[in-house]
Specification:
Strands 4-5-17-13-14-15 form a six-stranded mixed β-sheet, with helices on both faces. Strands 12-8-9-11-20 form a five-stranded parallel β-sheet, with helices on both faces. A three-stranded antiparallel β-sheet has the order 2-1-3, with no helix packed on it. With 430 residues, it is of the alpha/beta class. Helices cover 34% and strands 18% of the residues. It is built from 15 helices and 20 strands. The longest helix is centred in the middle third of the chain and has 16 residues.
């Protein structure tokens, strides 16, 4: 019955670079009147942060999500004040925003990933009468989240993923036939999966989800900071998150700006601190050079680096860094910084976090914890500051393992194949 009563969220779009306000034609990923590289943002009719107690799960934040409908089985991020980790690091106001599976915390994302926040927002932006098939490109967690959400809600989707990351394709329910998983071969990376999806989307029967350019993806991810503010009462002084593309950090900054404009949650003085898993350090290298342009990296080097990191989801060779409104602008505006964490750091904090907080994190979230520890050691944060640690995935090992099965890709295709051949082979899957 919720579905029948829901009124689509009212919003317009803003060109970040020029400030032009315009209407959404349905699935806008950019400003049709601007050829310069720039993100667009949603400008919501409701400028006040208004959680909806009449809606369940993630859709509690529907007033600041560009959604047309409500989908089944969504869950919102959970924020709580840390005791164990906070004491260990000597912090008095550390809050952890957790997006994963831990029923004791009230966190019930069955894919154990905050990528569910993207999937439930993006798919709810789609018109229910859409006849084309959605195309999603992923390094792993996004694939699992979109596959589960689309399966549960009968939404046709093709998900492109590196075959080397297929261990991330575990599910607690058998997938609906509307979901097709297509991999690029061993040795290929996320960028190759992006290339495959782009070739598929040349056919009018398919359309790209859009990644960071999709306002629904960013505003779904931005619900993490809305969860934080509901709990802590104001915008944090410092924000920590591990990143592959940086889209989650961009989303957090955009919602911090909205919250500041609301006026009830303080000014937006939030410093954005992001981190990467060495040796894949593209964003770190670019930022430390203080260059808007991405550092040079060859496909071969990028693939080799992606192979050896534990947090494989943090290996995007095409992140929204340089684009207007992208990660460079967020780091610059927020006076933020980029940290690094090694595979050894990940293993150390995986064990420490379990001992201190009582549950497990996925490798990418351990990178964020490591960066917070480094920031404390360097004096980049004060012990009394209000700090948000965005732990973007995890759960207890037992709950993650129980009842889950790996799903093999439906097809493995080289991204170097002609678009026509890719389109034909994937279309034959349906």
């Amino acid at each position: 019955m919720q579905l029948l009563k829901f009124k689509p969220t009212g919003y317009r779009l803003e060109n970040v670079k020029t400030g032009r306000i315009f209407d959404d034609a349905g699935w806008a990923l950019g400003d049709p009147q601007c050829s310069d590289p720039t993100l667009i943002r949603a400008v919501y009719e409701n400028t006040m942060f208004t959680p909806r107690n009449d809606l369940k799960g993630l859709y509690r934040y529907a007033e600041w999500m560009p959604v047309r409908r409500i989908l089944k089985h969504s869950c919102a991020p959970v924020t709580y004040k840390s005791k164990g980790l906070a004491k260990y690091l000597g912090l008095s106001n550390l809050y952890i925003t957790f997006s994963g599976y831990n029923p004791k915390l009230g966190a019930k994302m069955m894919t154990c990933s905050f990528k569910e926040t993207e999937a439930y927002s993006v798919c709810a932006r789609m018109d229910r009468r859409e006849k084309r098939t959605l195309v999603v490109q992923s390094a792993g967690n996004t694939a699992r989240a979109f596959a589960q959400v689309c399966s549960d809600n009968d939404i046709p989707v093709v998900i492109c993923i590196p075959e080397d990351n297929k261990h991330d394709l575990w599910f607690h329910r058998k997938l609906n036939r509307c979901v097709k998983l297509v991999a690029v071969p061993h040795g290929c990376d996320y960028y190759d999966a992006i290339t495959l999806g782009e070739k598929l989307a040349q056919d009018p029967g398919y359309f790209l989800e859009g990644g960071a350019k999709n306002i629904a993806r960013r505003d779904g991810m931005g619900t993490t900071i809305l969860s934080f503010v509901e709990k802590a009462g104001r915008i944090p002084d410092a924000y920590f998150q591990a990143v592959g593309s940086g889209t989650g950090a961009i989303a957090a900054w955009e919602n911090a700006e909205r919250l500041a404009a609301d006026g009830r949650f303080g000014e937006n003085k939030m410093r954005v601190y992001v981190s990467q898993n060495t040796p894949f350090t593209l964003l770190y290298d670019s930022w430390k050079a203080h260059s808007r342009q991405l550092a040079a990296i060859t496909p071969e080097l990028g693939r080799r680096q992606a192979e050896v990191i534990l947090a494989k989801v943090l290996s995007n060779r095409k992140p929204p860094y340089s684009i207007a409104g992208g990660l460079f602008d967020v780091l610059e505006s927020s006076k933020g910084d980029v940290y690094l964490a090694s595979n050894d750091d990940i293993m150390y904090w995986l064990l420490q976090f379990r001992n201190l907080e009582g549950y497990d994190l996925l490798p990418a979230a351990c990178v964020a914890v490591a960066s917070l520890s480094q920031a404390v050691e360097r004096g980049d944060v004060d012990k009394d500051e209000l700090i948000m640690l965005n732990c973007t995935g995890g759960g207890t090992l037992a709950s993650m393992a129980r009842g889950y099965n790996l799903k093999e890709p439906d097809l493995v295709l080289s991204p170097d194949l002609p678009a026509e051949e890719i389109i034909q082979k994937i279309t034959n899957l349906f």
